[in-house]
Amino acid sequence: MDSLMVSRVTISVVIFLYSCYHAWLGLSSLNAYSMPSLAIGFIVAYLVFSLISISFYAGLRIPTWLALTNLAFVMATPWIFTQMIIVNETASYSTWFVVGLATLLGITSFRGHVIIGWLGFFAIASQVIIWGGIGTLLNAGIVGALLMVFAGHASGYAIRTADRQAAESIESQRAFEVGAAGRTAARKFRQERIQQTLQKAEPILTEIVETQGHLDSDRSESARLLEAELRDLIRGRGLINERVSEAAKKARARGVKVELLDEGGLEEVDEVQRAEILEKVAKAIDAAVDGKITIRSPQGESWKVSIAAMSPSREEMSIWERI
């Protein structure tokens, strides 16, 4: 972003120096006008408008009222100067205002008002034609005026595009960092839960060995729930948090079969969005009273998570949702 700011400042300084050059051309041609003092006043006003349009206001875009003020000044100035030009005077730069005003229009286009810039250019061209005919366009510098407005248009577009791309890059990097932090936290949570589950499973596994697999119904149910919890942590991965894990445990205690299948659909989701999605998943599991509920997070789909629940008491799905 700093390099973009330097480029913007450099372009602005160059354009203003070019404006000063045309103002100097106008001042050097005062003998071509019947009212030199009025010409000086308009030349000074031209520099003021140029300086304000370049230096004032943060950001690339100037206020619309300032752009419209520039347009009004550009439309009035050619008419004033063409009335003052002494026809038999041979001063070389008496029509300095054609390219000079186009420079102001280039600044206006550069700072976000392209349409106003081109409207001003056509206003200058039409007034030059009214004053001296089509044959005067080239001698008056209309080609240079065209290039100035086009340069302002193109430069402004390039700067705005670069700013947008830089902002998108920063946002993308921020989203990646947030997502990476979320994935790290989820992975840490999952590892801790796996360790806790294995610790809880150790006494039952020892008992299974000692009894050669002959457990009473209560211990068999505990073993089944521990096996399901461990399977969730392995296959569910990003679908697991404290809330979902507790909801799945309670659902299984009600006799609901719960399957959590993480296929990578939540890898690019930030932690806030992931928490919102998993809260909806937990509520769906809470709503299942019997049968089977399957939670999947497929990769490459327009949705992040699908929820499907079947109840033996109903022919159609009791829950079907994509998040």
Low confidence ranges? none
Give the mean pLDDT. Answer: 80
**Succession of helices and strands:** HHHHHHHHHEHEEE
Number of strands: 4
Q: Helical residue percent?
A: 55-70%
Total domain count:
2
Supply the key terms.
323 residues; alpha+beta; 10 helices; 70% helix; 7% strand
Q: What is the compact description of this entry?
A:
Helices cover 70% and strands 7% of the residues. The protein is of the alpha+beta class. The relative contact order is 0.07.
Structure in words:
The protein has helices spanning 2-27, 36-55, 64-84, 96-110, 114-132, 136-140, 142-211, 217-236, 242-253, 271-287; strands at residues 257-262, 292-297, 306-310, 319-322. It has two domains: 2-169, no CATH class; 215-322, no CATH class. The longest helix has 70 residues, at 142-211. The protein has ten helices and four strands. The mean pLDDT is 80. Strands 1-2-3-4 form a four-stranded mixed beta sheet.
